[in-house]
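HUMAN:
Just now I want nothing more than another pair of eyes on a protein record. I would be glad if you read both lines and explained how they fit together. I have put the entry right below:
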Amino acid sequence: MASIHHYQTMKSWFTSYSQSFLTSDLGFNRNIQLKIDHTMRVIAAIEDVASHLKISPNDVELSRIIALFHDLGRFQQFLEYNTFADRKSVNHAHLAVKILQKKDILSILPPNEQILILSAIKYHNVAHVPLELSDQEIFFTKLIRDADKIDIYKVVCDHYQNPDPIFANTIELGLPNSQIISDKVFTSIMNDQLVKHEDIVSVTDFKILQLAWVFDLNFPRSFEIIKERRYIEIVNQTLPQTEKMAKIYEKVKNYLINRS
């Protein structure tokens, strides 16, 4: 069974592994640190959401381990490709699974728990959680997806409120800064659907994609956190205030209110 002892052992390993990517290049290091800090906040977010669910202490520890390793592939990804954009490089979730299997860091846990952890990490970034997964796999996958989104909202909102040129390309994926809203993006929102990455052609589309993440949240506490921190309002304030955008904002805001 997963225990706080196992988690602390793995956290120490994660710290050594992630910091091994730091170099003399301060710009490079800031991107590595961005993902280290993100990981620590996702752990806090998953603890928050899990604390509002009736799950065992062992499941809480499994949740922490999943959060700890969910972005493990990001460091190697940035080293090799100088980007966090999966479509321009490699699927960071699949890479995380490969690294964990190669390093054998999960071997101190029972095989069934290793499967749960690897499955949740593998599918934390897919458009839709595969229905053929077991109920436990689906639960933990949804848990990490919520925690991940909660912190990504924080990261992008912090950037939009206090733009950092160093992180602009990293966070906005190098997209052109057009204010036009793509038809496919608008239609997805109106249908309460996630926006597909292949449909975004600008930073505006990408911000609307972020608004649409509320359609993929799973637990009541997740909706409450997004509402409490006003992430939807913050993203909306950075978008063109057009009639089309007003419809998008109303759709997303009402969905959030009804679920929180």
Q: What stands out?
A: The chain has a mean pLDDT of 93. Residues 135-161 form the longest helix (27 residues). The CA atoms of residues 3 and 57 lie 8 Å apart.
